Amino acid sequence: ADIYLSGLNRSKKSFSQRIRSLALNFKGIDEEFLEELMVVLLEADIGIKTAQKIVDRVENEAMDRNLKSFGEISECLIEQMAQMYEEKGDEAIKRNEAGPTVILMVGVNGSGKTTTTAKLTKRLQEEGKSVVLAAADTFRAGAIDQLAMWAERLQVPCIKGKEGGDPSATLVDACRYAKAHDLDYLIGDTAGRLQNKANLMKELEKMHRVIAREIPGAPHEVWLVIDATTGQNGIAQAQVFLDACHVSGIILTKMDGTAKGGIVFAIRDLLGLPVRYIGLGETADDLRPFDLEAYLYGMCE
Ligand code: GDP
């Protein structure tokens, strides 16, 4: 938990400092306070729609429960943010009991898909699971080699096609490999070019189709990797992927490099998706399961 919090230090400091600075002018829940709270939320990159909801909820709660002190109100803020997150449900991560569990990584180039695939592999290995990787990002130059290098370091098999080749073919090969070797997990690293949305959709559809043919029910999880430093832009990009495939969760990368961790709440509120992991650096160890409680208290205390 300490590492988790220190990794989030940047978002923690600035958000909590700003919240605390609200105490200086605090005279009660008035227009001025609500406006200042709105600004703090926007600066944390929570986004205007979600920030407005949070402000409204804090205002209503404070009225209903007759909260007066700044302490009570900042406590209420954390509580309302947690409730908003949890209201969206609590879906468990899917696992395939009958054979390999297939996880697809999607997202725009540069968001951290390849690195996150490696990090996830390491976590699964630490749980005693066997993993095969599929280098299905046949578009970005060097992506296949980059994943193959991680695979070598982590001592897991990596199924690769040719650069510019059909990513679905690579995934089929990897599915067959996983079944033949009775492996627990297959993680597919895919390409994410947003410039050509129709193509991206067609490609993702095909990947889903061929994987499901090899392993019934697969892909079991489709995780959209979002670079936290891109802020609200990341949300807009996410929408494209949501339209193109069945995204089941989010991995938020580069949380070590931003003071704008509030994007977690925008993602949850606007896209309804759970944040599964957060990336806190460039090594294979820098991935943590998302923990709402630790996150909120890290941000707010
Ligand atoms: P891809 O194109 O989506 O596969 O992205 P990559 O995995 O190649 O990552 C792009 C860059 O972001 C690389 O330089 C990674 O080392 C870096 N990166 C990925 N995740 C993180 C993270 O959580 N924190 C930091 N600081 N850098 C990251």
From TrEMBL:
<comment type="subunit">
    <text>Part of the signal recognition particle protein translocation system, which is composed of SRP and FtsY.</text>
</comment>
<dbReference type="Pfam" id="PF00448">
    <property type="entry name" value="SRP54"/>
</dbReference>
<comment type="similarity">
    <text>Belongs to the GTP-binding SRP family. FtsY subfamily.</text>
</comment>
<feature type="binding site">
    <location>
        <begin position="107"/>
        <end position="114"/>
    </location>
    <ligand>
        <name>GTP</name>
    </ligand>
</feature>
<dbReference type="InterPro" id="IPR013822">
    <property type="entry name" value="Signal_recog_particl_SRP54_hlx"/>
</dbReference>
<dbReference type="InterPro" id="IPR000897">
    <property type="entry name" value="SRP54_GTPase_dom"/>
</dbReference>
<keyword id="KW-0547">Nucleotide-binding</keyword>
<dbReference type="InterPro" id="IPR003593">
    <property type="entry name" value="AAA+_ATPase"/>
</dbReference>
<comment type="function">
    <text>Involved in targeting and insertion of nascent membrane proteins into the cytoplasmic membrane. Acts as a receptor for the complex formed by the signal recognition particle (SRP) and the ribosome-nascent chain (RNC).</text>
</comment>
<dbReference type="InterPro" id="IPR004390">
    <property type="entry name" value="SR_rcpt_FtsY"/>
</dbReference>
<keyword id="KW-0342">GTP-binding</keyword>
<keyword id="KW-1003">Cell membrane</keyword>
<feature type="binding site">
    <location>
        <begin position="189"/>
        <end position="193"/>
    </location>
    <ligand>
        <name>GTP</name>
    </ligand>
</feature>
<keyword id="KW-0472">Membrane</keyword>
<dbReference type="Pfam" id="PF02881">
    <property type="entry name" value="SRP54_N"/>
</dbReference>
<feature type="binding site">
    <location>
        <begin position="253"/>
        <end position="256"/>
    </location>
    <ligand>
        <name>GTP</name>
    </ligand>
</feature>
<protein>
    <recommendedName>
        <fullName>Signal recognition particle receptor FtsY</fullName>
        <ecNumber>3.6.5.4</ecNumber>
    </recommendedName>
</protein>
<keyword id="KW-0675">Receptor</keyword>
<feature type="domain" description="SRP54-type proteins GTP-binding">
    <location>
        <begin position="274"/>
        <end position="287"/>
    </location>
</feature>
<dbReference type="InterPro" id="IPR036225">
    <property type="entry name" value="SRP/SRP_N"/>
</dbReference>
<dbReference type="InterPro" id="IPR042101">
    <property type="entry name" value="SRP54_N_sf"/>
</dbReference>
<dbReference type="InterPro" id="IPR027417">
    <property type="entry name" value="P-loop_NTPase"/>
</dbReference>
<keyword id="KW-0963">Cytoplasm</keyword>
<keyword id="KW-0378">Hydrolase</keyword>
